[in-house]
Amino acid sequence: MNDAAISPLDSDKGIFYDEGMGEKLYFVYILTNLHNTTLYTGITNNLFRRVQEHKRGEGGHFSRRYKMRKLVYFEVHCDVRIAISREKQIKGGSRMKKAELISTLNPDWLDLTLEIE
């Protein structure tokens, strides 16, 4: 599947499927706080739900403590193993590498939550 073939089947819940095969997709995402000083990388199969949980302070200890509320980057994968590997790769990188990754697709570090609603 090509990422360009992704379309929302149930966009009000943030669940996406490959239109042709009906396969579930997986999202690797990066959140930050209001001042873009701390970054959090995660993985989910429902980006909208997971971001809403973070915004309500229902994420893990780290994301609650540092108020990770702003979605600044995400990518989509159709294979959970590839998504997990990518999450680990991003987490293992330096802050500078993460900032460069975010800036390539979101140079103003805008909250992308509206993109997934």
Please write out the topology.
Blueprint: E1 6-10, E2 15-18, E3 26-32, E4 39-44, H1 47-55, H2 61-65, E5 70-77, H3 80-92, H4 95-105, H5 113-116
Antiparallel strand pairs: 1-2, 3-4, 3-5
Account of the protein in words:
With 117 residues, this protein is an alpha+beta fold. The chain has one domain (3-116): GIY-YIG endonuclease, CATH 3.40.1440. It has helices at 47-55, 61-65, 80-92, 95-105, 113-116; strands at 6-10, 15-18, 26-32, 39-44, 70-77. The strands form 2 sheets. A 3-stranded antiparallel beta sheet has the order 4-3-5, with helices on both faces. The protein has a two-stranded antiparallel sheet with strand order 1-2. It is globular, with a radius of gyration of 14 Å. The model is unreliable at 1-15 (pLDDT under 50).
Spell the H/E element sequence: EEEEHHEHHH
Mean pLDDT: 85
Strand content: 25-35%
CATH architecture: 3-Layer(aba) Sandwich
Main β-sheet, spatial strand arrangement: 4-3-5
Quaternary class: single chain
Q: What global shape is seen?
A: globular
Query: CATH homologous superfamily?
Result: GIY-YIG endonuclease
